Amino acid sequence: MNAIFRSIIVMVMAFSVVACNKDNTPKGDDQNSGDVFVSFGVNIPAASSLRAETEVGTEAENKISKVLVVLYNATTNDVDYNFSFDIKYSGKSGENFVGNDISNATSATSSRFVTVAQMVKKQDYKIAVFLNPTARILEATQKGRRATELDAVLGKDDLLHNDGHIQMTNEQGLVSISSSALKPSVAEAEAAPVRVTVDRVVAKVVVNGEGVVAKTVGDAVSDLEWTLDVTNKKSFLMRKFAPLGGTLTMEAQGDNSDRAMRYATDPNFDGNYDTMSSTDLAAEFDYITVPTSLVTANATTAMYVLENTMAKEKQYTVATTQVFLKLVYTPSGLQKGKTWVLYRGKKMHLDDFNTKIQEAKNSGATDASLDMPTGFVDEMKTKSAYPDEALKEPHLSIFKDGVCYYRIPIRHFGDNVSPDKMSYGRYGLVRNNVYTVNIKSVSIPGEPKNTPPDPNTPDDKKDTYISFNISVNYWYIRTQNISL
């Protein structure tokens, strides 16, 4: 896929001018005090080649309605300046950035623009860039506020918009700019921009069930739908560093590390997930109870969530974001959509199973005469007919309407980076990545009803019922192929 939206590069161009004019007069109260000017150039780079591990993203994912640049005093860490620009991008292919705060010095395109100049004092700064900032960020970046507020643990309402916009901010923390980078002329500043790369604050998940097959000859799977379970309720505004995959070297600002090797440290990175239940962790994660609002499993439908990472020894399903998959499983010879029973390996319609229960009460009935598995007569002759409801018992599962469920913990690093079970970064979601889960095949029926994640179940559990792969993109794509 094209890497045009692999990342967003924010070019901050600082320069001094002798006089200001109508086009570059700064706005706000005392923000116009200073002795030099700064202009900000934002670049969404167009790729010169195609890369399979990246994707452009949709119009909604690329849309930018507000640009905020904040300058923190490098000595006091207070906000000295916050510049909010009237600059927008529709996200549509072929359209350009527009707005009243775009400089006339450089023509805006679909991938870059330069802002009107703003006056600042000549000193060292730390820079934060926000595209589509939320109300919480606008409030936290007012003049005089501290840079430490950017380290706060924030909830979903503080980080996410409800109108489809995606907030973006610095990829590797605040970027320092020295006073010497404030050039004595416009031309010199534009020739030597300071660059800040930003990430979306969410991860994207796609589940594609097109072309899925049942491994058992004669069986069929259909009507795949999904949602996400165990999603993080909180995150940091900017991604916190973690050791890189493979080398386990700690990531550092400006290290030019491979994005495919990056992980993250989230607010609940190191919990006691091998012992705590979903009830214990209700303040940390959202868990589904009744599986509603499921979406079709195809190549285009996506969900967006906060990143969720964990220490290698804490990779348990109770704390790992996972795909909750629903499908209709139809065994060979049975009718699609009709409730069926799995009893000690034998599959049959519920109506027929209840008939066998009645026949088991007859004198002389045997397992063989009823063509049922060993132990059926002894176990069922005192039972009543089962209702048309989902059920899970030690030897009996009832799949109402043929529906069954699967859970797929989402992988971050593939086997090429984390080949061993419970190895570092094997599971988790990191912001600005696309996790594409391709459902390839289904070998056996799943669970007849929703079963909450078990704290005693590691993500690398022994049983595998679904075949899949997961890919992640920049939007970095990570693909996970699954066979159930």
UniProtKB/TrEMBL annotation:
GO cellular component terms, semicolon-separated: pilus shaft
Sequence ranges assigned to domain Minor fimbrium subunit Mfa1 C-terminal in this UniProt record: 398-481
NCBIfam families in the record: fim_Mfa1_fam (NF038041)
Signal peptide location: 1-21
Identification of the protein by name: Major fimbrial subunit protein (FimA)
Keywords: Signal
Pfam family, one: Fimbrillin_C
Top-level taxon of origin: Bacteria
